[in-house]
Amino acid sequence: MQIIYFLILGLFAGSIGGLVGLGGGVIIVPTLIYLFGFSQQSAQGTSLAVLLPPVGLLAAVVYYQKGFVDLKAALFIGLGVFVGSLIGSKIALNLPTLILQRIFGVLLISLGISMFFKK
User: Fold this and answer.
1) Measured between alpha carbons, how far is 2 from 43 in angstroms, rounded to an integer?
2) What is the sign, positive or negative, of the torsion defined by CA atoms of 7, 19, 29, 43?
3) pLDDT band for position 83 (50/70/90)?
4) Owning domain of residue 82
5) How many domains does the chain have?
6) CB 17 within 8 A of CB 2
7) What is the pTM for the complete model shown?
8) pLDDT higher for 112 or 54?
């Protein structure tokens, strides 16, 4: 039964990802923590593993076909993400779970408030 719930989570996160560019950090991580009992680190690691091929490939192709992908920006941002994810994951694995959850929550709230009030 858990496999079905994982599939539903993936469908929902993929749909939201394709719609507004969110998925892993905002949908998958909290769901794995609160509905499936994952630790913060396990949820983040699982989310990152999920996002490797499917999101980047299919959603980006659709956006590219409509002229909404800057390949130069994507390449250089991707290189930064490649190195940054290594650095961030090493830091995350050395933080207590509670501290990591609080950093994650503050970041989400701050971004949400900023986007809500931006003109």
Assistant:
1) 15
2) positive
3) confident
4) 2-117
5) 1
6) no
7) 0.67
8) 112
